[in-house]
Amino acid sequence: MKTASGDSALRGLAAIWLRDSCGCPECRDAGSGQRLVSIIDLPADVWLTATRAAGDSIEVVFGPDGHRGVFSRDWLAEQHSPPEDDRAEDAKRLWAAGDFAAGFPERSWPRYLASEADRAECLSGLLRDGFFLLRGVPCQPGTVLTVAASMRAGLGGREGRAGREGRAGRAERVAFYAAYRAFTEMIMKQELMLTFRLGPGDCVTLDNTRVLHARTGFDAAGQRHLQGCYADLDGVASTLAVLRRGREASR
Ligand SMILES: [Zn+2]
Questions:
Q1: By three-state DSSP, how is residue 56 classified?
Q2: In angstroms, what is the span from residue 49 Cα to ligand 1's centroid?
Q3: What crossing angle do the helices spanning 116-129 and 233-249 adopt, rounded to 10°?
Q4: Separation of 22 CA from ligand 1 center, angstroms?
Q5: How far apart are CA 198 and CA 221, in angstroms?
Q6: Which of 43, 148, 169, 242 could, after both became Cys, cross-link 231 (CB 3.0–4.6 A)?
């Protein structure tokens, strides 16, 4: 792999990093911003064949395939000090799809709401396994926020983690991309994938730091209604602690 060079805004940035971050319509869906290519679709060896200043942006031509990308100078400046994620992986259970042959960790929405023990089990499963499934969630706009709120009930005393600014060097990035490719090859293994169809009222709750999720596909011409939101993982841990304390006190 070769280093991006030429314009000083590109100095120190690995070419594979830029290529993977390309936001052109071939690389990202214009509507959703979702990635359209996987790391294993990209050439293993990527370099810059030409760069050209274009106003507040820089146009880059990549080798070996001649792909073109445009990067704003503001975005490039941010890449010199990306944030670091310091979440540990202690107490996480590593699993394969076969471990759920008997069924997924799931609850009905009414039971989840009615029983603190069931709610605690779901949240503890989320932190341990990375996901759980709710069935029978009302199919109304905004319900997903009610689900998220149910996982934040105990939040009050704990502070969110402040992001630490880190600095990734170009070696680090080249090493990262070698690991990223190996990781993607690993997660594409069938034995590590759970594939299932969601029906109306199904709500998958994921720890995004543990479990990756994707669609095998859907018909863009059909009617589709999907609600999604993000919630704070610290809120889950806090709510679980409150639920456990309440259950211990009632014994
Ligand atoms: Zn592109």
A1: coil
A2: 15
A3: 140
A4: 4
A5: 18
A6: 148
What is the distance in A from the centroid of ligand 1 to the CA of 58?
13
- pLDDT-derived band at 5 (thresholds 50, 70, 90) equals low
Distance CA 197, CA 199 (A): 6
- Please report the DSSP string for 177-224 in residue order: HHHHHHHHHHHT-GGG-------TT-EEEE-TTT-----S---TTS--
**Which tokens go with 125?**
């499963």
For ligand 1, the distance from its centroid to the CA atom of residue 142, given in whole angstroms, is 34
The Cα–Cα gap between 34 and 23 comes to: 10
Query: Where does residue 238 rank: exposed (0-12), middle (13-18), buried (19+ CB within 10 A)?
Result: buried
**Ligand 1 centroid vs 26 CA: distance in angstroms?**
5
164 closest CA partner among 234, 84, 232: 84
Q: Which residues of 49-88 are buried (b: 16+ CB within 10 A; e: fewer)?
A: eebeeeeebbebebbeeebebebeeeebeebeeeeeeeee
Q: Is the pTM for the entire model greater than 0.85?
A: no
Select the CATH number that applies to the domain covering 8-80 from these four: 3.10.150.10, 3.40.640.10, 3.30.2020.30, 1.25.10.10.
Answer: 3.30.2020.30
Domain with CATH 3.30.2020.30 in the chain: 8-80
Q: How many CB atoms lie within 10 A of CB 241?
A: 15
Q: How far is the CA of 24 from the centre of ligand 1 (A)?
A: 4
